[in-house]
Amino acid sequence: MSLTFAPTESKDAIALHLVPSDAVAPWAEGLPKAASDWFARLGFSGAPGQAMLAPDGNGGFIAAAGYGSAEQRKRSRSPLAAAAATLPEGTYRLETDLEPDAANEAALSWLLAGYRFDRYKSATAQKAALIAPAGVDAGRIEAIASGEALTRDLINTPASDMGPDELEDAARALASEFGADIDVTAGNTLLEKNFPLIHAVGRASPRAPRLIDMRWGQDGPAITLVGKGVCFDTGGLNLKPGASMGLMKKDMGGAAHVLGLARTIMALGLRIRLRVLVPAAENSVSGNAFRPGDVLTARNGKTIEINNTDAEGRLVLADALAYAGEETPDRVISMATLTGAARVAVGPDIAPFFTDDEDLADALSAAARRMADPVWRLPFHDPYEALIEPAIADLDNAPKGGFAGAITAALFLRRFAAPVSSYTHFDIYAWNANGAPGRPVGALQQGARAILGAIEDSLS
């Protein structure tokens, strides 16, 4: 699909007005009489999501389109997506002045309304097109939409067609498109190069585990993105029940997020030294699967007692984070579909993050508001460190008790990010269970726009 704006020189573009319900009368008075009468006759009230077209009275051409949007913007993450889905075929030009952030949000929501996952089933393309609103950087919004489309496509693809090898293929295609360097360590070579946890998690699957390492950019701050790439998670020997296994194709959502974000960063040509690390594996069941009670040794020498093989994401991330820290980049950011506790804390729509970097925390919160990408900071609560320290090893991968699961998982990961001075972890859900305009049921990107905005702010 092509998530792009219509050419600015498009002829016969229809004027699209965003009309709050308390301003319908004065707005209508400024229209040609035929259009004003039409809206009044058909009862246009500016109700949230109401869309209506009016003729100009001269041969049946469309004079204007009205869309009730004021309350809609308060209740919807994608304020203009409903209009894109509702309005008939045509090219539209936004005639309502919006603040810059609101204009960017509206423009992006229109493009995302055009997203379709049609690999296995034909889907009707969106027929309504929009000229980029005044003041909107069309190329930037298109790059953001394209990055999110990549993230959604990767997550939506079932595990039968998105294993570690296919995830590698996607990373290689992205690297080729933007001239990035890529290196992959797979199978038993992981042991030879000291990535024992990635190997342990993936060794029970016939699809070899691997570490994908992509680099791009020569100048600017060094930023490393690490994304959990567990392409399917059975839970291992601590087998998940069927209901919990049904969505596990999305357990590589962290990998999909960092690849989609990398796509946007490279398309925008941001002046950073970008590195993307994806530990990719399938957590399967076989005779050589790692077991509850095993003690594994990570890349950095820390020992880990395995108390639940279904807490495997933090294991693959541990090796990747230790590897990332060996170069001491300016910032390391990890993204993972890691804990159900994060969803209990903030629900499926908000991406919680953890960091000790106060400046970055403020920048992420500000960027999240500006870019309509809600995030919420949770604490690296040091007194909980004792919860991840078992009796016979340095660390416990699944502390008992069930309390503060998102925090203890983040504390576990922080142990491996040293000596990096700025480490941030996002515990994302990456899925939308309830369809909405611009946000269909299926894969969802979370937190990536907030990270992008914070990076852009740091470069300005």
How would you summarize this macromolecular structure in one to three sentences?
This is Leucyl aminopeptidase family protein. The chain has 460 residues and is an alpha/beta fold.
Structure commentary:
- The chain is α/β, with parallel strands linked by helices and 460 residues long.
- The chain folds into 2 domains: 14-131, 3-Layer(aba) Sandwich (Leucine Aminopeptidase, subunit E, domain 1), CATH 3.40.220; 142-459, Aminopeptidase (3-Layer(aba) Sandwich), CATH 3.40.630.
- It has helices at residues 24-29, 33-41, 70-75, 81-86, 100-112, 138-156, 164-178, 189-192, 196-202, 242-245, 253-268, 313-325, 340-346, 358-370, 405-417, 448-459, and strands at 14-19, 51-55, 62-68, 90-94, 128-131, 181-186, 210-216, 222-227, 229-233, 273-283, 295-297, 303-305, 331-336, 351-355, 375-377, 395-396, 423-427, 431-432, 442-443.
- The strands form 4 sheets. Strands 6, 7, 8, 9, 10, 13, 14, 15 and 17 form a 9-stranded mixed sheet that branches. Strands 2-3-1-4-5 form a 5-stranded mixed sheet, with helices on both faces. A 3-stranded mixed sheet has the order 11-12-16, with helices on one face.
- Helix 5 crosses helix 6 (138-156) and helix 7 runs parallel beside helix 11.
- The chain is elongated, with a radius of gyration of 24 Å.
